[in-house]
Design goal:
With 217 residues, this protein is an alpha+beta fold. It has four helices and 13 strands. Strands 1, 2, 3, 4, 5, 6, 7, 8, 9, 10, 11, 12 and 13 form a 13-stranded mixed β-sheet that branches. It starts with a helix and ends with a strand.
């Protein structure tokens, strides 16, 4: 109990670097077809508060194409490793959370909804989220780096929302969301605070997306 309390106190005072894990995490997240690879600056063990307890966090994550072009980036990601994969001698995430990202959500003139924008940071972090959502929606393939991935989270995101059909824009100072893999689609739970002229308004929503008809409920 004394050792456990001491370890928790040490982690609570600041992140503990686990840099030796970085090459293994990078190797575990390489696309099987070589289309992309992921690099990172450090891996740390941090105290995420009583709601998250201990987090394995990956810092300065970069998504690179085969020619080393920068496709996406995230300053900090929380990773939950699959116990099943560890028993097979593999590092594979079962949950990935983007922490404090800056995102831009756009509904274009054709009604399509996408992530990105003109700002470099929102474009890079939007691309990173799109890769994770694509991995979550694809059927789990054996040997894939995202074979065991079941959830993608977004924690304390700052979001700009642009609706080009309505000609309106909104600012959301905070978004928390959890997206879960289903048999043929994705389910989501979202908590969103939107800044309006009269003050901030909080929205809570649940959503289900089905791949086959392509319908969002």
């Amino acid at each position: 109990m004394v050792v456990a309390a001491g370890a928790l106190w040490l982690i609570a005072t600041g992140p503990v670097s686990l840099g030796f894990l970085a090459p293994y995490v990078e190797g575990a997240l390489v696309a099987r077809d070589g289309a992309y690879r992921i690099t990172l600056a450090d891996t740390v063990l941090a105290w995420g508060g009583w709601s998250r307890t201990l987090d394995l966090r990956v810092l300065d994550v970069r998504l690179l194409a085969a020619d080393d072009a920068l496709l996406g980036q995230a300053p900090e990601i929380s990773v939950t490793l699959s116990v099943r994969a560890l028993l097979q001698g593999r590092l594979a995430p079962t949950r990935i959370d983007l922490l404090n990202p800056q995102l831009r959500l756009i509904r274009d003139e054709n009604g399509r909804i996408g992530l990105g924008g003109d700002l470099p940071q929102t474009a890079r972090e939007g691309n990173m989220l799109q890769v994770l959502l694509a991995a979550l929606s694809d059927p789990p393939a054996q040997g894939s780096p995202f074979e065991f991935l079941s959830r993608v989270g977004i924690a304390e995101a700052t979001v700009w929302i642009e609706d080009r059909i309505a000609g309106a824009e909104w600012f959301a100072p905070r978004l928390d969301a959890t997206l879960a893999r289903r048999t043929a689609g994705i389910s989501a739970e979202l908590d969103l605070i939107v800044a309006l002229i009269g003050g901030a308004v909080e929205f809570t929503a649940t959503a289900d997306y089905s791949d086959v008809p392509g319908v969002l409920t």
